[in-house]
Amino acid sequence: MLNKIDLSGAWRLALDYECKGENILYNENIDLPNTTSNAKKGKLNDARETGYLTDTYKFEGWAWFRRTIDTDAAGCSALELFLERTRITEVFIDGRSLGVQESFVAPHVYDLTEYIGTGEHELVIKVANAGYKTSGGHMTSPDTQTNWNGIVGRIELIGYGKAHCKNVMLKTDIHAKCVRVTADVIGAEKGSVLISQHVINDEEAIGEPKEFAFENGRLEIVYKLADDTALWSEHDPALYELCIDIDGDRSRHIFGLREFGTEDGKFTINGRKTFLPWSR
Fold first, then answer.
1. Same domain (yes/no): 113, 232
2. How far is residue 139 from each of residues 23, 73, 144, measured CA to CA in Å?
3. Do 148 and 190 share a structural domain?
4. Quick check: 56 and 9 in contact, CB under 8 A?
5. In the predicted structure, residue 215 carries a pLDDT above the cut 80
6. Domain end: 129, 160, 191, which one?
7. Prediction pTM value
8. Residue 136: its pLDDT value, please?
9. Cβ contacts of 157 within 8 Å, gap of 6 or more
10. DSSP state, residue 231
């Protein structure tokens, strides 16, 4: 990525109990990331359940979040809206819908590239915690985390260069001390990337950065790690970042060097027998 714009902070809020999307009145404020219950939005819940969790403020329906964004601020060739964790969402730019996403377990990512170069726009995110395709269950039931509404985690505009990596996967080999890297390259069919290894949050590379070629919009290479790269274990959870640089568009991916296996009916981490507790 080239740049990130943090969208956390003050948003306008409208609560749509009837899920109609008509005559929306943004008469409240909320600081995101947040849930409506934690922000004391909705109806005060006087119930005090003993068998499961209880939201202090209860709201089920459509929550509408609105603010202004500048689609030029990231200075990029491709632009995405990233919502780390939420419910069913629908995103609107100046009243135009960009689609609906429903995952409870993965970030919601919307493509805003077509708006680059057009300045400021009204961004509206509708979050629904009603009308699920499933009737309750994990992540929506009061015995897990309640049927909350809102957006939590990272809320960002992410700007990318003309060529950038997506779907990056890392597979480590503790014996050869290397990592196999596969990724889709968006925006270029062929070219080269510069790959380097770093301690987390450190700009200085460990070992020697290396250049690799890619073709057909696909990167598939093996990168040799520094000789002093430590193995990961529960006693010494050593973690690193692999940086992929394509013409200045840099992405960093956290990894640990470890091997999970079995020996004589026991689990092993890096050849050492380990115990994994089981609970019900």
1. no
2. 30, 35, 6
3. no
4. no
5. yes
6. 160
7. 0.88
8. 66
9. 4, 5, 7, 69, 71, 73, 74, 79, 80, 81, 82, 112
10. P
193 and 64 together in one domain: no
Give mean pLDDT, residues 175-192.
96
> What is the tally of structural domains in the chain?
2
| Final residue of a structural domain among 160, 175, 209 | 160
CA triple 107-198-241, angle to 5 deg: 20
Same domain? 40 vs 125: yes
CATH number at 10 reads 2.60.120.260
- State the Rg of the chain over Cα: 23
Please write the tens of the pLDDT for every residue from 251-272: 999 999 999 999 999 999 999 8
Burial class of 72 by CB neighbour count within 10 A (0 to 12, 13 to 18, 19+): middle
Residue 89 in this model has a pLDDT that exceeds 60: yes
**C-alpha to C-alpha distance for 119 and 116, rounded to whole angstroms:** 7
